[in-house]
Amino acid sequence: MAELNTIARPYTKAAFDYALDKGDLDQWSDILAFAALIVNDSEMKRVLGTPSLSPEQKAELIVSVCDKTMNDGAKNFIYLLAENQRLILLPKISAQFDQFKADLEKSVDVDLTTAFELDQKLVDKLAQALRSKLGREVKMTSTVDQSIIGGVILRANDLVIDGSVRARLTKLAEAMNS
After folding, report:
1. pTM, whole model, 2 decimals?
2. pLDDT value, residue 159
3. Which residues are CB-neighbours of 13 under 8 A, at least 6 positions away?
4. Pairing mode, if any, of strands 107-114 and 152-156?
């Protein structure tokens, strides 16, 4: 996985710099996310894996599916990826692009998992604490997962804070078994 991220990074950087220069970061983010969905589709993977299709035909296929949303720069980018046999990198490029965009905007997406629905005041208080801790604007997404029994799990990029009861019980069981 790290290898694909490394290969994708120069393409991501080029797309990001181009979009930043044109002032189209949001549009490019949407385009790359949609193209990544297309490439990840099981039927599309099968078609794109067909050796009889030329790189240009593969690019035309992707461009035709999302033609209404793509600008000329994005179309050229898809053709470049196809020419270099790198269409498989679109999901990585999309994720990296969004990370570059979040870094530029000084924001971070945080996934909050709880055992039960939290009061909005508590979510706001938690977001404020994370905002001051991380030094970034926090975009909080909340989900309920009763299997964690209690507590919370926070995910922000590479940072994971697991304060769930389930994790604590697992640690206790490991300590007792060792």
Report:
1. 0.69
2. 83
3. 100
4. antiparallel
